[in-house]
Design a protein that fits this description.
- This protein is α+β, with helices and mostly antiparallel strands.
- The protein has one domain.
- It is built from five helices and seven strands.
- Strands 1-2-3-4 form a four-stranded antiparallel β-sheet, covered by helices on one side.
- Strand 2 and strand 3 form a beta hairpin.
- The radius of gyration is 16 Å and the shape is globular.
- The relative contact order is 0.15.
């Protein structure tokens, strides 16, 4: 019997095939758990529809759907989260594009990082960036990464 998948998963799988991206309908959670605690979202119960692409500078970008409801239950809203991984990426920063419905998070152990600007007019107009400082954010979201995300529609 096939495991339950969110509505629209077949469209994401087709998109991944058409772009020659790695696709995993229900990816292993250990990759995502290593990123916790998240700075801008509640840690989801499950992850679905992970698409992975190698980057020109080494490493890869994985875009996946955090599932904030139980399996086979529809959450109030749906979103995508991207993770960029490369050996030379050593900074910590978070970005958000779109609606902040997942960001209503209570921070118990430490306050969230502050919102910062990078001085990149297009980025700052469309993206909310969180980091310890503007320089930390600029080091984390280097121009090639920002350009890749911009080209990909983020």
């Amino acid at each position: 019997m096939m495991a339950w998948l969110p509505t629209g998963s077949e469209h994401i799988a087709a998109y991944a095939r058409s772009r020659r991206l790695g696709y995993d309908a229900k990816p292993a959670e250990d990759f995502f758990r290593r990123w916790e605690p998240h700075d801008t979202i509640v840690s989801p119960e499950l992850w679905y529809n992970a698409c992975t692409q190698p980057t020109p500078w080494g490493g890869h970008v994985t875009v996946a759907e955090p599932w904030t409801a139980g399996e086979a239950c529809e959450p109030l809203e749906r979103t995508l989260v991207a993770f960029a991984t490369a050996s030379w990426l050593t900074r910590r920063a978070a970005m958000r594009v779109g609606e902040p419905f997942l960001t209503k998070v209570g921070f118990l152990e430490a306050p969230p990082p502050p919102k910062v600007s990078l001085g990149d007019a297009v980025w700052d107009e469309h993206v909310t960036t969180f980091a310890a400082s503007p320089s930390e954010a600029a080091s984390a979201f280097v121009r090639p990464l920002r350009e890749l995300l911009r080209r990909r529609g983020f």
